[in-house]
Request: fold
Amino acid sequence: MDLEPGALVGLNEQPGCVFQLINLDQDKGCAWIRPWPLASVHSRTLSVSTLELKQLEEVA
Reply:
């Protein structure tokens, strides 16, 4: 999987939910994500294992 910050991803355990990748640490196997679309006030950031991520098809 070739992901870069800003990519839209899903989680294996939460089908149908979309998240934006904030940062990725392949060495530690950790990624920081936030729910997508962004909230107008504040979007919480979550730390998850890279094993939980699944790449989503780009929406044009």
